[in-house]
Design goal:
Blueprint: E1 2-5, H1 10-21, E2 29-32, E3 53-55, E4 61-63, H2 65-75, H3 88-114, H4 122-142, H5 146-149, H6 154-163, H7 179-189, H8 192-195
Parallel strand pairs: 1-2
Antiparallel strand pairs: 1-3, 3-4
The structure holds glutathione.
The site of glutathione (GSH) has 11 residues, from loops.
């Protein structure tokens, strides 16, 4: 299989972490793609131009990190990232959606500061900074949920990759005053799969 990524994409990082956690390194070739560039050769592989994108062994391509992760989880060995049974499944979905919501907002902020300075929107940046602050407050409470403290799952991976976007944009300052979230992040960031996929620093 071929997994197209960019080193800075948090969505692609979630898929890369699942590759490592599932021990699929020998079956998945990770290929850097050129995104957001006119006439990139990558558009011939994936017309949407987005990453992550998984081309399966049968040649079929998959978009969306959640779909790709589910495929990777099921393509080899017992699945380990399926939803838990009973009511906890709704908690797992709720927390994964909350983590993705934070990732979506932080990604918009990172994208904005990667534009040339005279093309950045102060309004968008302010909006995303405010959203990130509210979400970090919420996560500093939710992080005590049993689903965030047990065996590794997609809510944890998604939140870890969202918070890790601080490396890309130093203005993302979710740590001060959020001790529990900081301690949680330090533990997950130390996992080999997280360390091996850390995004490049800076603007
Ligand atoms: N919902 C998608 C989001 C993917 C996404 O937004 N990827 C960004 C990189 S972080 C991208 O490929 N951007 C390139 C573009 O929009 O042309 C997922 O979960 O996979």
């Amino acid at each position: 299989m071929k997994l197209y990524i960019t080193p800075g994409s948090p969505y692609a990082r979630v898929a890369r972490i699942v590759v490592l956690e599932k021990g699929l390194q020998d079956r998945v070739e990770v290929i850097p793609a050129r995104t957001r560039a006119t006439n990139s050769p990558y558009y011939a592989v994936n017309p949407s131009g987005r990453v992550p994108y998984l081309v399966r062994d049968d040649g079929v391509g998959l978009e969306e990190s959640a779909v790709i992760c589910a495929w990777l989880d099921h393509c080899h060995g017992d699945p380990v990232f399926d939803l838990p049974p009973g009511d906890m499944a709704w908690e797992a979905r709720r927390l994964e959606a909350l983590a993705r919501s934070m990732m979506d907002g932080l990604s918009v902020w990172v994208r904005e500061i990667l534009r040339p300075e005279d093309e950045r929107s102060p309004g968008v940046i302010r909006h995303e900074a405010d959203r990130a602050s509210r979400m970090a407050d919420l996560w500093d409470v939710e992080i005590d949920h049993p689903w965030m403290r047990g065996a590794l799952n997609l809510a944890q991976i998604t939140l870890g990759c969202a918070l890790g976007l601080k490396t890309r944009n130093p203005d993302i300052n979710w740590r001060p005053g959020r001790t529990k979230l900081s301690d949680w992040f330090d533990r997950i960031a130390a996992r080999p799969s997280f360390a091996a996929t850390a995004p490049p620093a800076g603007r």
